[in-house]
């Protein structure tokens, strides 16, 4: 049985969304229930085994979704300015998320997550559409 990977974008986007949601839910586990910190990152931040599992799911799902979006860019039918704006918004979101870990601006992660979330919520449904060709 032959399966064309490009023929099922909706299924792939659904799987990536499930991986991302599972990773976020694991990362939401309270620090007191995670166990010991394995790798200290900065004051108040550290990576436990539970965090590593959540981050791995999030990284796999996010990277897979990014690959799907890039591969289907010609089919998204977005004008260049919209693509630039979404890319800028997503980049700003990721930058703020990373900066919040390494700086004293703890609540910047919420702004970064919201910016990245908006870009994903716009691009994921467009990527999941089947192409007419």
UniProtKB/TrEMBL annotation:
Highest taxon above the source species: Bacteria
Transmembrane segments: 12-32, 52-70, 82-102, 108-128
Keywords tagged on the record: Membrane, Transmembrane, Transmembrane helix
The protein's name in its UniProt record: Major facilitator superfamily (MFS) profile domain-containing protein
Organism (species): Micromonospora halotolerans
Lineage: Bacteria, Bacillati, Actinomycetota, Actinomycetes, Micromonosporales
